Amino acid sequence: MAFWEEKTLAEMSQTEWESLCDGCARCCLHKLEDEESGEYAYTAVVCRYLDKSCRCSDYSSRHINVPECVPLTPNRASEFRWLPETCAYRRLAEGRGLAEWHPLVSGSPETVVAAGISVVGRTISEEHVHPDGLEEHIIRWVVH
């Protein structure tokens, strides 16, 4: 049995916790919250520190340089309703397993791209978008 099927999020080692990230970078997208419904709309606008391979170019200092970058921790995973439904952290916090395209299941990081989960090649840096123009970049990506 795989570690994510045997352990709770809080029981996982730091290495196990980090390995749950599929590298999609959807958490790095700017999101707009509807204050009435509490639902989130994702935009194609991404954090300036996200590189072309969907990795944070300033990972160790990201919470300092981007105060809005929320640290994901096992004991708070269930609070992060803004994470996409595809996110392993959210899926496991909600009692769902990992998706078949997740690298820990498929054995390949390429399945994240093939399933249409990754943001690679589909975003625009926040450096090129005025904060008041985020609504013009709302997206609805379909999962394959």
What are the defining features of this structure?
single chain; 144 residues; alpha+beta; three-stranded mixed sheet; 10% strand; globular
Low-confidence stretches: none
Strand arrangement, largest sheet?
1-2-3
What is the number of strand segments?
A: 3
Query: SSE order, as H and E?
Result: HHEEHHHHE
Tell me the helix content. 10-25%
Q: Biggest β-sheet: count, sense, barrel?
A: 3 strands, mixed
Shape descriptor reads globular
Describe the structure.
The protein has 144 residues and is α+β, with helices and mostly antiparallel strands. It has one domain. The chain has helices at 3-6, 14-19, 62-65, 88-93, 103-106, 110-114, and strands at 29-33, 40-46, 124-125. The longest helix is centred in the N-terminal third of the chain and has 6 residues, at 14-19. The chain is globular, with a radius of gyration of 15 Å. The model has no long low-confidence stretch (mean pLDDT 91).
Topology:
Elements (H helix, E strand, L loop, with lengths): L2 H4 L7 H6 L9 E5 L6 E7 L15 H4 L22 H6 L9 H4 L3 H5 L9 E2 L19
Parallel strand pairs: 2-3
Antiparallel strand pairs: 1-2
What is the gist of this entry?
The protein has about 140 residues and is α+β, with helices and mostly antiparallel strands.
